[in-house]
Amino acid sequence: MSFTLEDRWAITDLLSMHGHLVDDGHLDRFEDLFTADVVYDLTGFGQEPLRGVAALRAAGWALGADNPVAHHVTNIVVTAETDDRARARSKGLGIGADGTCASVSYDDVVVRTPDGWRISHRTLTPRRTPLGGLTGPG
């Protein structure tokens, strides 16, 4: 088996599906996106990483009305590591109910499972300063 163009498409679809499922309130379908033991790293937001789909689902429900009303994933770049493992980097935009907008970078490890590609590790990095905080060449 080898990493194919179809694998890239499947991973891109996987990352794109996240926003649809969350925005539609289908947190019960997180197994379609994540491995059962997923690590969802929120340390960039001053929080401990969430471990496992159940913890991720509970956190989503606990946020309730503070969840963004729209998640948009863009600029997906997939890099194969092996036939069954890849890294994906993408940008995320979240739109709040009050119209505010926030940006993150997603750094994902995706793995091939018997049910298809799933995210096994996701790191969210908030984007708060232009140019990644750099002020000049160097």
UniProtKB/TrEMBL annotation:
UniProt superkingdom: Bacteria
SUPFAM superfamilies named among the record's database cross-references: NTF2-like
Pfam families, per database record: SnoaL_4 (PF13577)
Residues covered by the SnoaL-like domain: 4-123
Protein known as: SnoaL-like domain-containing protein
